[in-house]
Amino acid sequence: MEILGIDHIAIIPKSPKKFIDFFINFLGFTLSHIEIIGTRGLKILFLQKDNINIEVLISIHPNSEISKFIKIYKSGIHHIAFKTENINRDIQELINANLAPATSKIKIGAHNKKVLFIHPKVIGGILIELCQ
Prior knowledge:
The protein is an alpha+beta fold.
């Protein structure tokens, strides 16, 4: 698997407005984009500074992809996403190494990227996303 770098860190804040205000007003980030992915129940706010990308995840319906996380943890770092060169090859490498992805299908994520999540149980408790 060839990792090209960190793509983004996704965070679910308890208070999105406070979180975003802090990142913009004190840390110098800009709100570069807002995207709604209705099929996944998500509103994503993209904060950017230099080569740092933060995704703020907000649930827009009770059965969103992040609703279980919110019920258990309330807020926190949801996942770390790594850029990859060939996500189709990566999924096969994961399966061959018995590191089953959270889903066996590659999804289309924000910015129309191909994404795949590796289940936290497989790698020590942190959700990892691969994106291309």
